[in-house]
Amino acid sequence: MPHRPLSLEHFRQRLAHADALPQLVILGVLAGLAAGGLISLFRSADTLLQAWLLPGGAERFEELDDLQRLLLPLGGSLLLILLFAAVPAHARTVGIVHMLERLTNYEGRLPIFNLFIQGLAALIALASGHSVGREGPAVHLGAGAGSLLGQRLYLPNNSMRVLVGCGAAAGIAATFNTPLAAVIFSMEVVLLEYTLIGFLPVMVAALVGDIVSRALVGEALVFTAPSLSIAELTQLPLIAVLGLACGLLATGFHLLQMQVFKLKHWPFPVRFLLAGLLTGLVALQWPEVMGGGYDTIESLFNTPEPILFLAGLLLAKCLLTPVVIGLGIPAGLIGPTLFIGVVAGALVGAIGSLLIGTPHSGLYAMLGMGAMMAALLNAPLAALLAMLELTQNTGIILPGMLAILVANLTTRFGFGLPSIFHASLQRQGMDLRQAPLAQILSRAAVGSLMQRDFSATPAQLSVAEAQSLLESAPHWLLVSTESRSVLMPPADLRQHLETLSEDTDDSTPIDLLSIPAQRADIEPLLYRATLKEALDRMQLKQLSHLLVVSNREEPLGLISRQQIEEYYNRKQTLS
Asked: What are the DSSP calls for 28-94, one per residue?
């Protein structure tokens, strides 16, 4: 029976197809609204909590006295220990790596309880001055909002992947108010592909998420950055040196964090207390390392600082942040990455000014921000756009491209390092990269190809019932018992009826599992599954067909290996 055009069932049915762009755009709007609202709540809670704890207001950790700087991170660690002790182990996995793992192994189905723990734990970590950022939790929360929307509506799995990408983009946009960078971040880091069918919904979600956060809590990061640009091309070699320096810093950050990850077998109370103690001790000398450090970033855009101060601050942040995150403090590294890049850029600019009289070191601070982000996240275009949107300075595009290029080449090809998020997954034995076959088959659900021309029948029926069954001319007969389901060609039943004598009574019983016929075993598969899931199931079970069923296990249609192969070949020809 056909579904009404405006019904939810029709909406789900359309989403099963790879070309359901209007429906995906609608989902992008909904994901943007959900993620924007959730991130606005998270941002407001973070700001209010810090304003309550810090005498000078949010991010003003520098105004704390020495004892407060030492005890605040330790107190935060104690609260995190109590929180994690009160929840089961599976709820403690949070952040971007957790989101990517669920996207890879669970079709993007993020648990709501982990989402709650992520928000609460991140608020504690940020307010207590740990050297972490709020952007990683925001990506998890945004992606979770999109995922929960898809789960609540029982949407096909091919659309779940796009929804997670939409939510992640909306989360970044609502946190940074950088919608364009958020779109590219989602495509480069989360979805790992650029396609029109994925790009437009993600763009809509980022736009809506940004609008919602601006309307509810105002602009997020408002850096007052001077309009600086390179005065002459002779500065390009120094900018390339900055890119190389950021690439080397990102490599060291990456390798150090991977080494600290090896301490995961330590009890989390020990790891959290160690992270709090290290943060407090470092903050005694460099309080700027605490929190996101956005006030320090803006200051370095506008005011040069002494070389020794910048060198010490850079070393402190580069050593502390990967250790704290590696020890398991549940917050993000994107904000600290920007901080490190800004300090590195300011340091290179200060040295250059001393040696060869280059212009304002604030220009190099802006360039370092993008270069460090590109090198560590392996997201060069997202880094360039973030740098542009955060500073609103178009004069940094040319030098920014050079710094980002050199930094990204240093980590990616000089040391062979992937994104730090993907490296964390590879340590767990997972690889996000999909072969072309998997990419194409993941974009459509089985509902887009399934055949409905079959007739379901019990194995035991009479001659009259068999004749009536054949009158509808089905392509297949689905024969079911309590323990088994098989497919059978109707022609075999027709041939068996023709062998019966003319005086056979219409009530004579027939056992469809006993008469001479070709039969193929078949297993059920939920209508939400993608074509890739269907093909994987067929290969695992050595089946040629699968039975597509509803949530209530009612038969909806049949999908065959031949149909999937023809679909793939057709898409390959068109691409």
From this structure: HHHHHHHHHHHHHHHHHHHHHHHHHH-TT-TT-GGGS-HHHHHHHHHHHHHHHHHHHHTS-GGGG--
> What is the C-alpha separation between 507 and 469, in angstroms, rounded?
14
Helix, strand or coil, per DSSP, at residue 401: helix
**What pLDDT digit, counting tens, does each position of 406-442 carry?**
999 999 999 999 899 888 887 766 665 555 667 778 8
What is the 3-state secondary structure of 275-290?
HHHHHHHHHHHCHHHC
Burial class for 559, CB neighbours closer than 10 Å (0-12, 13-18, 19+) = buried
Distance between CA atoms of 223 and 292, rounded to whole angstroms?
Answer: 13
Identity of the amino acid at 246 = C
In 3-state terms the chain splits into helix, strand, coil percentages (rounded to 5) of 65, 5, 25
Euclidean distance between CA atoms 377 and 187, whole angstroms: 13
Give me 453's structure tokens: 């021309």
Sign, Cα dihedral of 433, 436, 437, 443: positive
In tens, the pLDDT along 246-271 reads 999 999 999 999 999 999 899 999 99
CA 233 remoteness from chain centre: 39
* pTM for the predicted model, two decimal places: 0.85
Tokens linked to 409: 């080449």
Tokens of 574: 């068109």
Instruction: Report helix, strand or coil for 267.
Output: coil
